[in-house]
Design brief:
By secondary structure, the chain is of the alpha+beta class. Helix content is about 20%, strand content about 30%. It has helices at about 5-10, 15-25, 115-120, 145-150, 185-190, 225-230; strands spanning about 25-30, 30-35, 45-50, 50-55, 60-65, 95-100, 105-110, 130-135, 155, 160, 165-170, 175-180, 195-205, 210, 220. Bound molecules: uracil (URA). The site of uracil has 8 residues, from helix 5.
């Protein structure tokens, strides 16, 4: 929300008053004087007026988890353990998952309270590649590379998948880079060839790589430099 909007939404200021306060340099955003009413402020920003705190700003939180199989990528579930159950953190209801994985899929999962940031990481428009390590029941042939690069038609959604890059690493294994996240996408793409996916593991999401020191079920906070990469 714009800073002038934030102020005029408070019961004590109207729009004109908000504009004057900002123009007079009486606002601090995260400790810095701010005279631009168009500036975007978020729930993470600390906003002060003449030394009075109008919004304390809550800490932005970013975690990477090595998701084990059998744990659901959801914040609540009636039957299964959820990925949030693996986190020993306060105020877990504030957190959401950036890019879910199926029950049986393992690997990199991002959990955060910063919706704008996680959207940048996951939305197809950002064109950030998500890299999956795949093992299959049947051999993977060169033909797959061309078909995945062209895109596959998914009748249920009535769409063609974005070009995906396949790197064959063994007779039954490959690395697949997707730029979107459709329902069961990897399994359905291999399903086009009647080839069942036996294991699926996400290694990268855009500039973020699963920390090899994290055992399945372990997590850590992202470093500031990792957050800034997205
Ligand atoms: N594609 C799948 O089929 N499953 C996942 O969990 C992620 C991508």
């Amino acid at each position: 929300m714009r800073l002038d909007r934030f102020l005029s939404n408070l019961p004590r200021f109207n729009r004109a008053e908000a504009r004057l306060l900002i123009a007079a340099g009486r606002l601090l955003v995260n400790g810095q004087s701010e005279r631009d009413g168009c500036r975007d402020v978020r729930e993470f920003d600390r906003i002060e007026l003449d030394g009075e705190t109008l919004q304390a700003g809550k800490p932005a939180r970013y975690f990477m988890l090595n998701k084990p199989a059998g744990v659901v990528s959801a914040t609540e579930h009636p039957e299964h353990r959820t990925v949030l159950d693996l986190l020993d953190e306060p105020d877990k209801h504030d957190l959401h998952i950036g890019g879910r994985l199926d029950l049986t899929t393992t690997g990199l999962l991002i959990i955060t309270n910063d919706g704008l940031w996680s959207r940048r990481l996951t939305e197809p428009r950002s064109r950030l590649g998500k890299v999956y390590r795949v093992q299959t029941e049947q051999p993977i042939t060169e033909e797959y590379i061309e078909v995945f690069a062209r895109g596959l038609y998914f009748a249920y959604e009535n769409l063609t998948t974005l070009p995906a890059e396949l790197q064959i690493t063994g007779s039954h294994s490959a690395l697949l880079t997707l730029h979107e996240g459709r329902y069961h996408q990897v399994k359905r793409m291999f399903g086009h060839f009647q080839n069942k996916v036996l294991t699926l593991h996400r290694e990268h999401m855009g500039p973020l790589q699963l920390d090899p020191d994290l055992a399945p079920g372990q997590y850590r906070s992202l470093r500031a430099e990792e957050v800034a990469r997205v």
